[in-house]
Amino acid sequence: MSGGAVLDLFNRFVDGLVAIVRLVCIVLATALFVIVIAAIVARYGFGQAVSWTEEVPRYLLIWVSFLAAAVCVLKREHVGFELLFDALPPRPKRALAIFIGLLILGFGWVVFRYGIVFVQDFGSDLMETIPYTNYWYYPAMPVSGFLTMVSALKLIVDAIQNREIEAPTTNIPTVE
Q1: Is residue 165 in some structural domain?
Q2: What is the rounded CA–CA span in Å between residue 96 and residue 134?
Q3: In sequence order, which residues have a C-beta less than 8 Å from that of residue 167 and are 6 or more positions away?
Q4: Could you identify which of 33, 78, 90, 167 might form a hypothetical disulfide with 82, taking C-beta atoms 3.0 to 4.6 angstroms apart as the criterion?
Q5: Contact yes or no for 119/142 (Cβ under 8 A)
Q6: Cβ atoms of residues 90 and 163 within 8 Å
Q7: Three-state DSSP class for 126?
Q8: Which residue positions in the chain have pLDDT lower than 50?
C-alpha cells in the first residue's frame, strides 16, 4: 500500500469518525432537549418533579460538549488568532500549523490518559439520583481525548502535505 493510499484511507477514516460523532451529538442533544421539556411539563403541568431529569441532561451535556469539542479541533472552530495566522507567509504559517497541531495532540493525549485514570478511580461511584455507576458518562473524557488526537494528527498531516491552511470563515454578519 502506497503512502497516498494510506493517507486516503486515514482521511476517509477521519471523515467517517466525524460523521458518526456528529450523529451521536445530534441524538444526545435531542434526548437532552426532550428530557428537559418533559421535566418542565411534569413539574409545572402536573406538579410532579422527576428526580433524574436534572442529572441525566447534565451528563448528556457533558458527552455532547466533549464530543463536539473534539470535532471542532478538526474544523478549526475553536478560539484562535485568525488575523495573525492569515498574515503569515506560507512557510511560517505551515510551521505554526504543525506546531499548533502538536500542541493539540499533546493536549488530547493528556485528556485521553488522565481520562482513563479518572474513569478507573471514580467510575464505580454511584450517581446522585439514579442507581447507576458513573461508568457510562465518565468515558467522555478519554473518548474526547482520542478524537482530539485523531483530529490533531489530521491537521498535522494536512500541514505537512502543504494543503491549504486557513482559519475557518465565520458566519457572523459584519457591518460594511
Answers
A1: no
A2: 39
A3: 76, 80, 82, 85, 86
A4: 167
A5: yes
A6: no
A7: strand
A8: 174
| pLDDT (0 to 100) of residue 150 | 95
Instruction: Determine the 3-state secondary structure of 133 from DSSP.
Output: strand
Residue 175 covered by a domain: no
- Chain position carrying cell 406538579: 47
The conformation of residue 124, written as its DSSP 8-state character, comes to T
Tell me the pTM. 0.83
Counting every residue written for the chain, the total comes to 176
Contact 98, 156 (CB under 8 A): yes
Residues 142 and 122 sit within 8 Å (Cβ to Cβ): no
Whole-angstrom distance, CA of residue 134 vs CA of residue 125: 6
Judge whether 169 lies within some domain. Answer: no
Please give the tally of structural domains in the chain: 1
Helix ranges restricted to H, the chain? 3-40, 46, 52-75, 82-87, 90-122, 140-160
- Cα–Cα distance, 63 to 151 (Å, whole number): 17
* pLDDT attached to residue 53: 85
